[in-house]
Amino acid sequence: MPKVNLLVRAGQMVPAHDKPAFPDGAVAISGEKIEAVGTYEELSGRYPKAKVVGGQKFLLIPGLINGHGHGRGLTDFQRGARDNTLETWLLDTRKYIPVSTYDDIAYSAARLLKAGVTTTMHNHILKDPTAYEAEFEEALEAYGDAGIRVQFNPGVRNANPFVYGDNKAFLDNLPEKLRSALTAPSPEGSLTGENFVQAVQDLHSRSNTPMSRIGFGPLAPQWCTNELLMDVRKAAEALQAPIHVHAVQSIFQKVYGLQFLGRTLIEYMNDIGFLGPLLVVGHCVWPTEKDIELLAQTGTAVTHHPSCNLRVRNGISPAFHMLEAGVLVGLGLDGKSINDDDDIIQEMKVCFLLHRIPSLELNSPHLTARQVFKMVTENNASLLGYGEELGRLEPGRYADLVLLDYKRMGYPFVDPSHDPVEVLLYRGLGSHVHTVIVNGRITVKDGKLLTMDEEKIGKRLAKASSRQRTEKEKMLVDMMDELKKYAVAYYKGWPGKVKTEPYFEINSRIDALK
Fold first, then answer.
1. Could you give the CA distance from residue 492 to residue 485 in angstroms, rounded to a whole number?
2. Higher-scoring residue by pLDDT: 150, 357
3. What are the percentages of helix, strand and coil residues in the chain, rounded to 5?
4. What is the percent of the chain with per-residue pLDDT over 70, rounded to a whole number?
5. Rounded to an integer, what distance in angstroms lies between the CA atom of residue 81 and that of residue 92?
6. Which residues of 99-133 are buried (b: 16+ CB within 10 A; e: fewer)?
7. 40-49, long-range: CB within 8 Å, 24+ apart, which pairs?
8. What is the pLDDT of residues 289-343, one digit of tens each?
């Protein structure tokens, strides 16, 4: 019989999205795996020598999973980028004063762990394209030191560098000085579309483990060539590794597909053979009903980022409609939670509340608390390639668990007839997380991170970010501000090019009966 070294106890336990809560539950852990799940009375009798953590005041759930992120310890807002429409906001993100890759990601990992996230997806955007191997290693080292599980996807783009569509015509319209600066060749040794697949294959061969699964993150069909996407698809199938892209995120991307490709971006990806299992489409705010059918038919997954989509003015993804159609939909923070703090419990709440209005009819179907719970546990586990290993408290799965202070969450009283998952979504906060266990190891206790000195990392980040900009960095800021003006002019009128018929009825500007 395997040696059980840890017994996690709670007054309420929810082992999975489709399992009822039951009182005085417990999970027995042997090394990295769950050995048994049952009542505390039963398991304490079976494993009397196991160390016990938890108690009656806690709620025990599977570790929460972030389906999409970029490892930003300092948020975009903290670094100077105010929320705005995606296409102009992205230019502001190019102005940042560089900070340590390790510190940035370690600080992000610390914040995620303290909010109950035990696994996160990371789509890596390079700070220095010539130092990509070192950045990948620093990133994985940071996650490893923090003790969080990561599904790591290096990113790349090799098309539409400035706008969606005719970049040559756009550049020709710029002042000569700005055009020359923007079209300078990439430094020798950079990660590009040509060497991207090999670089990820090499990283996979040396770093793919249960704690760091390696996949592909070509940024988007609007930012990558057909050839690159299909090279990635072929390599991913050989490795059985996930592919993550961003698509149909904004109305401008919707217009781009229709105007320049003659079809939606989802139809385009289907036509070239890119849709299918292993592929995850981030955001997916503007899909048509046919797009949703294609996603379901091909087994393509989606991650929903409700707060991010609100903050960068994308809209509201029809996540409920996709789930109803049979699409695998997960939930991602994307570094832009509603409080700018990566609180995934708050993100679950935003998702839950946004999708209670797919219809205005009384008692009509809507997204339930249990569906949201599934999105952030079992669905995210599946789309990150951990389908049978995470997302549920079951024997044989990795021991990733979270204890929350349920007594404080409901203080001074909550009706006992409520499902604890509903209590979590209505009243829960990341600050209610008490204990986090990843791979059988306690990483957070009493709400405090045990694996690294979060305060020291924060001080290093503050020092690095608050220095004076160099002259070269000041020039970059000016250049992005100037470029933004031309981008705004380029996209002017685009939203009016398409007919819209929203999935959600929110309000009406007219007053008339049909």
1. 11
2. 150
3. 40, 20, 40
4. 100
5. 5
6. bbbbbbbbbbbbbbbbbbbbbbbbbbbbeeeebbe
7. 40/7, 40/9, 43/7, 44/7, 44/9, 47/4, 47/7, 49/4
8. 999 999 999 999 999 999 999 999 999 999 999 999 999 999 999 999 999 999 9
